[in-house]
Amino acid sequence: MVTNRRLVVTWVSHDRYYGVPMSTWTSKSIQLVAIAACVGLAFGCSERRKAEGEGGAPKAATGSGSDQAPAAAAQTIKIAGSSTVSPITEAVAEEFQKKNQARVTIAVTGTGGGFKKFCRGETALTGASRPIKPTEREACKKASIGYIELPVAYDGLAVVVSKQNDWVDHMTTQELKTMWAPESAKQGIKKWSQIRTGWPDKEFHLFGPGTDSGTFDYFTKAIVGKEQASRGDFTPNEDDNVLVQGISGDKVALGYFGYAYYAENKDKLKIVPIEDGKDDNGKGPIAPSLETVANGTYQPLSRPIFVYISKKEAQRPEIEAFVKYYLSPDGRKLVKEVGYIPLPDKAYDLVIERFNKRTEGSLFEGGSKVGVTVEQLLGS
């Protein structure tokens, strides 16, 4: 599940180094790390800034000391991006490093933040829970950064409430739109009773990813009809675990995030099946699951998620090896292990072909496409 592969964070930042599982630490080792951290704060900060450049993002330790050879340092694979995609990338990075000398660093920045780093040439790969936007494509073009877009898995957005909520057993897409649309806030819609007759006359509290998140972009397009179209009076956070805590402890809360985070917290949250009003993809309210996302019946909140690779960086042997491992049968097993839905084998074959040919550009020039499969896109 998602949290089983949380590893060592070597600096107080969203930049993470994945090396030694925390589950293997003893109380003594934790004390030693704490002492080392204090010493580092006292004596090492100026050296850290000098090594990284003033104002630069914290780099992960590689475990070989300050005298490490430049050739080995050059094998660091820098990744940033989506909190939705990061559990897959974390798992792949952990297993890849067991078999390869390259080191992988991952910055969980949100999809938009990841593209900013990527289009400045700061990372070799970035994870994205929605396709690259026109403004981001332009930023990459100005920086002469070509990119290869690779769908790597399917995800279903889980709409959830607290376990304490005893009135919601399903919702329609129209009810979700009424709850989240920007005009609803202007019209004073803020109570459960205004969403459906018979529901409590209590204010609802909304939680969701931040506006820099690809999940936010996809949800708003699929439910409201336009990316970024959302009421502003909700509690945003790029860390899905923070959203889980906020929703689970609030009886009148509702929120959404990637299915894997619900699967990891089933004991705290209640899933809300969704009725899209279209019987051709399944009758009645349907809840997200590995099966309903894979077979396309959970609509409109099923979507592909991506990694983008710098075309120039893809020439590096360690980058090519990492991407190929990501798409291999071993990588696909990790997708399922952390709670996401692997693509069909045929789709992976098409994705691998796209990478091998170094096919540049995006399949989503007009933005996210709701209800379209990867096979349909890559086979067209």
What does this structure look like?
- This protein has 380 residues and is α/β, with parallel strands linked by helices.
- The chain folds into two domains: 2-154 and 307-379, 3-Layer(aba) Sandwich (D-Maltodextrin-Binding Protein, domain 2); 156-302, D-Maltodextrin-Binding Protein, domain 2 (3-Layer(aba) Sandwich), CATH 3.40.190.10.
- 38% of the residues lie in helices and 17% in strands.
- It is built from 16 helices and twelve strands.
- It has helices at residues 27-43, 45-52, 70-73, 86-99, 111-119, 134-142, 173-180, 182-186, 214-224, 240-248, 259-264, 290-294, 317-327, 329-337, 345-356, 374-379, and strands spanning 15-17, 76-81, 103-108, 125-128, 147-162, 171-172, 205-208, 235-236, 253-258, 269-271, 274-275, 302-310.
- The strands form two sheets. Strands 1, 2, 3, 4, 5, 7, 8, 9, 10 and 12 form a ten-stranded mixed beta sheet that branches. Strands 6-11 form a two-stranded parallel sheet.
- Strand 2, helix 4 and strand 3 form a beta-alpha-beta unit.
- Helix 5 packs parallel to helix 6.
- Residues 1-72 have low confidence and may be disordered.
Offer a few descriptive terms:
alpha/beta; 380 residues; two-stranded parallel sheet
Outline of the structure:
The protein is α/β, with parallel strands linked by helices and 380 residues long.
What is the fold's blueprint, element by element?
Blueprint: E1 15-17, H1 27-43, H2 45-52, H3 70-73, E2 76-81, H4 86-99, E3 103-108, H5 111-119, E4 125-128, H6 134-142, E5 147-162, E6 171-172, H7 173-180, H8 182-186, E7 205-208, H9 214-224, E8 235-236, H10 240-248, E9 253-258, H11 259-264, E10 269-271, E11 274-275, H12 290-294, E12 302-310, H13 317-327, H14 329-337, H15 345-356, H16 374-379
Parallel strand pairs: 2-3, 2-4, 6-11, 7-8, 7-9
Antiparallel strand pairs: 1-3, 4-12, 5-9, 5-10, 5-12
Helix pairs in contact: 5-6
